[in-house]
Amino acid sequence: MGTESSGDRRDALRRLLNHTSGTPDHEIDERETDPRFLVAPTRQDLLAWIATNHRIAPPGRTWSYTSDGFIAAALVAEQVTGSSYGDLIRRELAEPLGLDHFGFELEPRAQAYMNHDGRPVPVPAIPYAWFSGAGSTCGTLGDLAQWWMVLRGGRVLNAASLAALMTPVTLRAEGATAEFPYGLGIRLGR
Length: 190
Description:
Blueprint: H1 6-18, H2 43-51, H3 68-81, H4 85-97, E1 102-104, E2 113-116, E3 119-122, E4 137-139, H5 141-152, H6 159-166, E5 169-173, E6 176-180
Antiparallel strand pairs: 1-4, 2-3, 5-6
């Protein structure tokens, strides 16, 4: 995102959030943890990992779920604000909205297990930073419910931004229209 106009950058961010960037999700073998994922990544580590993904279509031509878009959007937010993603969540959302158990890297963390020949085997914990904007924000059921009500109630976004967030992706090609159940970073129940 170096020499593009601000409109091009906004379009690129929109495509990252609505899964029309032209890249699929990374394939990760959950049975085997890559050792690099056991150490918290730097910004360069995240960008390098995203760069390993291949393009399956030109941007805006197809819909394909990808967590990379959320990770990239979090990196953009960090660069623009000079704050970490976790600090942004805490300072801009959790604290002002009174969400006491909502944030990034909440502890204690549940131990994950996998079935190995009928026995539970612990899975090593991957640092939250590998997922940044892609599902690393968590909270109690009460705080998540309150977050949803506050979001839908217009206390976080203005009406136009909330409408954009909640509008499903529509792609048109060769006279056909396809609608996908995602807005800007949010799965819709349609």
